[in-house]
Design brief:
- With about 210 residues, the protein is mainly beta.
- Among the domains are: about 50 residues, no CATH class; about 80 residues, Immunoglobulins (Immunoglobulin-like, Sandwich).
- The chain contains two helices and nine strands; from the N terminus they run H-E-E-E-E-E-E-E-E-E-H.
- Strands 4, 5, 6 and 8 form a four-stranded antiparallel β-sheet that branches.
- Strand 2 and strand 3 form a beta hairpin.
- It is rod-shaped and about 180 Å long.
- The relative contact order is 0.27.
Amino acid sequence: MKKKIIDIWVILSISIIVILIAINIPYTTTESYKDKEFYTEQEPYTTTQKYVEKEAYIEYVPLNNYTTSGWYLTDDRINDKFDLKISIKNTGNSSGEFWITFHVISTNRSYDVTTNRAFLKPSESYQFIQTFAGTFSYASYKVYQTTREITKYRDVTKGRDITANRSIDKSRDVVKQRKVTLSLIERVLNNAPASPPTVAPLPPPQPED
C-alpha cells in the first residue's frame, strides 16, 4: 500500500513537471491586428495660371520729317500791313498734311492764326503766306503735320483657370497579420485582466418574523 502511494506521487510529480515544461515551450501562431496605413492620393483642384500675351495696339506718331526755310517778313507800310512767309519741305518717305500756327503782335493787336493745310509728297515744298494788319512787332510760329498709325506690341499679363493635381496625405485602418511566438503561460498572462473583477457584497440577511 505504501509503495502504491509512492508510485502515485512519483507519477503526479512527473506529470506536473511535464505540464510545466509544456506550458513554457514557445510556439508560433498567426494573429490579426489593426494598424494605420498611410498613402498619398492625387486630388484635383482649380487654380489660376498667369501667362504673358503679346497685345497689338495703335499709336499715332508725328512724321517729324520736315525742314523750314525762307522765314521772312515783307512790310507794306503804305497799306499798314505785313506778310509772314515760311517754306516747309517734306523730307520723309511718307506723304502728309502740314500747317502752321502763328502768334503775332502788331501795332493793331495780337493774332493767333492757323493756316490752311498743305498736302506734301516726299521731297515737295510749300510756302505759307499769312497777312496781318498793322506794323510788325513780334512773331512766333509752330509747324504741325499729320500723324501716322503704327502698330506696336506690349506684354499683357493675363490669367486663366486650370485644373491641376496635388498630393494629399491620407490614412486608413487596415487589418494585418503577424506571427507571434509565445508559450502557453505567456499567452494566458497576456490575456489576463489587469485587475480582478469587483464583486458587489451581498446584503445582510433580514431577520425572520
